[in-house]
Amino acid sequence: MRHLSRYSALAKGLFVAEGRKGRKVVVIDVRPTATSKQADEFLEITPGQDFEIATVLRAIIKGLPLPELPEDSTVGGVPLSKWRELVSLMKACHYGVVMFGIGVTESRGKDLNLEQIIKLVGEMNEFTRFYAIPMRGHGNVNGSNQVLTWQTGYPFAVNLSRGYPRYNPGEFSVMDLLIRREVDAALIIATDPGAHLPKVAVEHLKNIPTIVLEPHENLTTSWANVVIPVAPAGVGVSGTFYRMDNVALQVKKLADFPFPSDLEVVKSIKERIADVKDYQRASL
Amino acid sequence: MSSHQDVVCTFCGCLCDDLEVEVADNQITKVKRACTIGRNKLMHAQSDLASVRINGQAATLEEALNEAAGILGKAKAPLVYGLCSTTTEAQREAVALTELIGGIVDNPSSY
After folding, report:
1. Which terms in the Gene Ontology molecular function aspect does this entry carry (chain A) (predicted)?
2. What Cα–Cα distance (Å) separates residue A198 from each residue in A174, A179, A208, B10?
3. Cα(A80)–Cα(A53) distance, rounded to whole angstroms?
4. Which residues on A lie below 8 Å from B15 (Cβ)?
5. Which residues of B are less than 8 Å from A196 in CB distance?
6. How far B23 CA lies from chain A's nearest CA (Å)?
7. Which domains does chain A have, with CATH numbers?
8. Which candidate in A102, A113, A150, A158 is best for mutational testing of the B interface (most B CBs within 10 A)?
9. ipTM for the complex shown
10. Tens digits of per-residue pLDDT, A70-122?
11. Cα–Cα 20 to 30 A to A246, which of A8, A92, A131, B55?
């Protein structure tokens, strides 16, 4: 909630000493929000047109002719002239940042929408400095992408069943695995699928043995087969978290909890399984 | 009573690192400079704690760890999912565990 004041619109920076007055904020959304009220320009678009909008923006950036689109036409519910104005504004700035939310992956096109946005930002660097930051939900979801990429080469949806990492969102991503009922046990660490995932995905989790590592009672601990309480990171245990702009920060321990940390529990489970595997190998 | 300076709020990806938190008798009593959500998260961090359970029955930590190891060791296609509100140290260990059990590891950025 302090994103605007601490990091984006209002923050005073080395080259923007005056803060909000030195910035242009454009919000693109399907409805007015608290953020859009603070913007210099709000472009209210029709839902599900993200791919089309990004494609047209890329064409305007490159100065390509748009023979199919008359000048008075609209793209995603916004006049073409408005998109041309936006591109002029982007090209005129010294340093632009596209901050995109999870909404762009939820509409038709899914990851292809992101590919368009990332290509757009890449192409903008022909003209001026431009950057893209995904808006992150939970505290260290960026850290999990960092660690997975560091350990396996891929940021999420990694299958290690063949002993080497395979990456395929849509096949090895949680929603698809659960809806297709392809997994036969689950270890849930520091998230609440019972609250966040759609009912059909949660139904499959309820049908397989599910283990949850979680400090508080939530909508998953009520039905999980094994509940192991852990001390919450940043309150009961210290460690590293990655901020949404990829800066690593050390979180603190503030109070004692009667529980072990996630790290200790995962390590202990791993050692127990490794011991059994060693024993089985030795007795072959 | 102790006062912690430059505390990092772990609720969202902004990770505001300028909080001040007062702790008395191991209880968080005051949170300064956080947003409403961050303050509530910290103020309620010590209430409604979970308990160790196996199939709804109270169990010891040792029993729960054995049960978890049994389930994951036997599974043909286990899923390790979440990792979004824990430390990178624990995330790294979770990747090692997934490799050992030949599973699939994913986090909420996949949907």
Report:
1. formylmethanofuran dehydrogenase activity; NADH dehydrogenase activity
2. 11, 9, 16, 25
3. 10
4. 139, 241, 243-244, 249
5. 108
6. 7
7. 2-135 (3.40.228.10), 141-273 (3.40.50.740)
8. A158
9. 0.97
10. 999 999 999 999 999 999 999 999 999 999 998 888 788 888 999 999 999 99
11. A92
